[in-house]
Amino acid sequence: xxxxxxxxxxxxxxxxxxxxxxxxxxxxxxxxxxxxxxxxxxxxxxxxxxxxxxxxxxxxxxxxxxxxxxxxxxxxxxxxxxxxxxxxxxxxxxxxxxxxxxxxxxxxxxxxxxxxxxxxxxxxxxxxxxxxx
Length: 133
Description:
This protein has 133 residues and is of the alpha+beta class. Helices cover 29% and strands 29% of the residues. It has helices spanning 7-12, 54-60, 84-94, 117-130, and strands at 16-18, 23-28, 40-44, 47-53, 67-73, 100-103, 108-113. Strands 1, 2, 3, 4, 5, 6 and 7 form a 7-stranded antiparallel β-sheet that branches. The two termini are 23 Å apart.
């Protein structure tokens, strides 16, 4: 399956969807425990970054600084598409909202401060509406 590459179509059909719950970024040494519902894993020289539900991080005794809401852009974006994450991050920044973007094989995922989830979702929906043909 080939993902979409046209930026206007990507933005116009991205259908941002807010996931339930609070997600946190933490880092562990070595492999991630199998018992966790991990949304994202990134291996770095300093440790393994995990994005997981706050409840599970608390239960495991993991420390974290960033409580996030997780928004998935439901459009199937090509991994070599140009401009989607830049447009999303810039538009959020223009509205005073920070974000962390992670690309999956099918979709892009945006993590925003949890307290600003509704505002970020609204901003992304408005951006999408501006690009519909």
